[in-house]
Amino acid sequence: MLPAIAIGALYLRFKRLPREVTPGRWITLSLCVAATVIILVMGYYAVLTTR
Hints:
mainly alpha; 2 helices
């Protein structure tokens, strides 16, 4: 469920957010890093549980 929320947050940030309210570069970078970490950790967990 967390990877779906992370991907949804990225989609909303880059595709649906009006330019007038876009956050700064550090916030956007933090969102991308957090989403990447969440997806990687959940992928690693999925691999461990299938063994």
